[in-house]
Design goal:
alpha+beta, 7-stranded antiparallel β-sheet, 18 strands, about 25% helix, signal, transmembrane, membrane, DUF4331, transmembrane helix
């Protein structure tokens, strides 16, 4: 290991300790967030800063060598095919070897420490490359590739056209910037019904956070007496394009069982319909050679990517986010130079105060500590100034003149990290820098588990969440990760079974991913030795919303002699035999328009 990597590994220790103390990490399609740009609220307009999805998978056609496809989609403002002139978008990419840590099945602190050690370069990686896109006049954008081994490239290109660009090293890059059909096929009203999210059904302003997720249990099946969110035959479009005024409270639930019809069937909160059918998005779609992204394509088999939206400060748009806000995280990331200065001064004071020629052991140790602090401060400052700081985000924007005129609004990496686990909070839009969110993720998973777990068992399935066999979903706010961890431990450490071996296209000994590996950092982690289906990337045809629900299943259980897998809840036969209406998977099985077999892959806009 080089001296630089050893020094960065030493500086990584606080991150590992923070997450280890919480005993784990996180979990993210990203429609309608963050809250500051969330048009689901009655007083927030649709914003071009609202990122939707981050797709990424290895190209199936390898005739031109190994290539990776990246597609970032976002709100079509002002219209699909035209960009808001006050927006700047970034697709950020770094490559790494596949992590080789073997974490024990029962998990625990030591398992997590082993994992952090094995993948520390995913958190403390060299400066990531980026593709930056800025509107440049009528139907044109300025696209910049920077920080990649294949060389930097800047060019103004036409929108809504598939183009080939030549990198300085001669490799061909493909780009499409413009409008496409929304590739996210999902029953969003069903998801919001499952978490009793009032703004989807009622006129709720942004400044009423207490009226967002109402204190009613999360659930996959309707609760008897939950009139605020149960399907209303008299108003069948409620929550699906129709909103009403929120009736007077109380906004709680006092029942004790699930709703059943006259035939004894439960009612699904999901309809299985595609709420995004007929809608367009704007998109940045890229197909890049792996050898352009890394100098070591034979060993760097993981391509990590995430997207960011930045709004011009002078525009006054997204006013709920302050122009001068400091991104959240550890103090040394939020104020790197100030932190280095404090450590430097402390070190110098120790050196000066203990410089007497005759010293006892304690002053000698303090003198040595002073020198260590000085060297640490200097080394940390060099790392930050060179853009090789932590997680590749904050330190690399400090000296960026263009970004100085913008503010970060939204990030998108792993499907459902933001929409389900981050609760769309503005301060949690940090992309790969989400290590400090470990404690909140554990608590959020437990909160969801108390609702989803009992409803999964009510349907005759087994849940990985420990809810003490609660007979009905429970609304429980878990205040401590220490309290939450025993409940979610199995969920976090269990292997996520795949339905068959088609994902492992080369039949290599690639370990199945586990929940704690999927969501920290918040990036789309694409394994180039697989076909890129979730959680080994994200292909457009993946039904990630239903696969996310599968995280709450017990992957050691069996149905029809076969272990549960991430596709189990997508199987129509499962629901045909269940005592539930409607007898359909939670979300649609396919997009409203077929995806294309060739670049740019996402379907043409309506």
């Amino acid at each position: 290991m080089s001296a630089l990597r050893r020094f960065r590994a030493l500086l990584a220790l606080p991150f590992a300790l923070v997450l280890a103390a919480a005993s784990t990490p996180a979990i993210a399609a990203d429609h309608n967030d963050p809250n500051a740009a969330n048009s689901i609220f009655s007083d927030i307009p649709m914003s071009a800063a609202d990122l939707y999805d981050m797709f990424g998978w290895p190209a199936d056609d390898v005739s031109r060598g190994e290539r990776v496809i990246l597609a970032l989609t976002f709100a079509p403002v002002p219209i699909a095919g035209t960009f808001d002139p006050d927006l700047l978008y970034r697709v950020r990419v770094f490559t790494a070897p596949r992590a080789s840590a073997q974490v024990a099945e029962d998990g625990g602190l030591q398992g997590l420490l082993d994992y952090f050690k094995a993948v520390q370069d995913r958190y403390l990686h060299a400066r990531p490359g980026e593709v930056r896109v800025v509107p440049a006049g009528e139907k044109k954008v300025a696209i910049t590739f920077r920080g990649f081994p294949g060389g930097d490239l800047a060019q103004t290109i036409d929108m809504n056209t598939s183009l080939e660009l030549k990198a300085p090293d001669g490799q061909v890059l493909q780009a499409y910037i413009g409008g496409r059909d929304d590739a996210f096929f999902n029953d969003l009203p069903g998801f919001f019904r499952s978490i009793n999210y009032a703004p989807q059904f009622y006129h709720v302003p942004h400044n009423k956070p207490e009226l967002r997720e109402l204190p009613i249990p999360k659930t996959l099946i309707e609760l008897e007496g939950n009139t605020l969110f149960n399907f209303d035959p008299a108003n069948p479009r409620h929550g699906s394009g129709v909103k009403t005024d929120l009736p007077p409270g109380p906004y709680t639930w006092s029942g004790n069982r699930y709703l059943k019809d006259a035939n004894g069937n439960f009612r699904f909160v999901y309809s299985g319909r595609d709420a995004q059918a007929g809608f367009n998005v704007n998109a940045i779609i890229l197909e890049l050679p792996l050898s352009y992204l890394t100098r070591s394509p034979t060993t760097d088999r993981i391509v990590n990517a995430w997207g960011e939206s930045w709004v011009r400060k002078a525009s006054g748009k997204v006013p709920a986010i302050a122009d001068d806000r400091v991104l959240p995280g550890p103090v040394w990331e939020r104020y790197p130079y100030q932190s280095a200065a404090v450590v430097l001064v402390a070190g110098l004071l120790l050196v000066v105060a203990t410089r007497a020629p005759r010293r006892s052991l304690i002053p000698k140790l303090a003198h040595a500590l002073g020198f260590v602090l000085v060297l640490t401060a200097v080394g940390f400052t060099v790392l930050v100034a060179s853009g090789r700081g932590f997680a590749g985000s904050r330190s690399q924007t400090l000296g960026d003149e263009q970004l100085a005129g913008y503010k970060l609004v939204d990030t998108d990496g792993q499907a459902f990290a933001d929409a389900a686990l981050n609760e769309r909070k503005d301060e949690r839009q940090v992309g790969a820098d989400n290590l400090f969110l470990g404690p909140s993720f554990i608590k959020r998973l437990a909160h969801l588990g108390w609702g989803f777990g009992p409803s999964i068992r009510a349907l005759g399935l087994q849940s990985a969440f420990n809810d003490d066999n609660a007979p009905v979903s429970v609304h429980k706010v878990v205040d401590s990760p220490v309290e939450a961890f025993p409940r979610v431990k199995k969920m976090l450490f269990q292997k996520l079974n795949m339905p068959d071996n088609s994902w492992n296209k080369r039949n290599l000994p690639i370990p199945l991913r586990r929940t704690f590996e999927v969501f920290v950092p918040n990036v789309n982690s694409i394994d180039m030795d697989t076909n890129g289906t979730w959680p080994f990337g994200r292909r457009p045809e993946d039904q990630v919303a239903t696969r996310f629900l599968a995280l709450f299943l017990d992957m050691t259980a069996q149905v029809n002699g076969k272990p549960y897998d991430v596709e189990l809840l997508n199987q129509p036969a499962l629901w045909q035999g269940a005592a539930i209406e409607p007898k359909t998977p939670p979300n649609p099985a396919a997009n409203d328009k077929p995806f294309l077999a060739t670049f740019p892959y996402l379907a043409e806009p309506w």
